[in-house]
Hints:
This protein is mainly beta and 207 residues long.
Amino acid sequence: MFSGIIAAVGRIAELAPRNDGTSTVRLTIDAGGLGLDDVALGDSIACNGVCLTVVEKQGDSFCVDVSPESLSCTVGLGEVGELNLEKALRLADRLGGHLVSGHVDGVGEVMGFKPIGDGDDSCHLLEIRAPQDLAKYIARKGSITVDGVSLTTNSVDNATFTINLIPHTLAQTTLKRLKPGSRVNLEVDLIARYVERMLNPTAPETA
């Protein structure tokens, strides 16, 4: 589990296909400011909101294997570039954001990204359109994860929602790079999913 509070911005430095007969790729990730001293092989690190397993460590870098399934239903893992990093929670950690599983529910599209007010150090209004089947899980003033970042929605109109990003969030994450047309990983509130299941216990679930 994760909290959606980004610890560092890292960078995919290298992508290499695994020679195992599948389309699995191995990513070498420069951890940036994410300390790896307490990270062991087999530990989980959220990369742009995707829970991945550390399979190798090399100084200030670590490696993860990404399956074809993960590549097909997420963005930001198939090319060299920056990404948000967070280590898995320990039981004694503070839950600064909200409960995040690291399992992406869908890919959204940025419809708008603009400053609110004047000056370089200003808040920004982010507007995202989610896949239609996720609309029922998104509520005004509810929690949602965007590229691994725990955020609170301002408004919701069907499957489109807005978020007010403060300067600190922009400075500490990759969200400052967004623009209309950008695609982002979305994970809806875990509690909302369980509530739906309790209300509709016989409804079929799909991947």
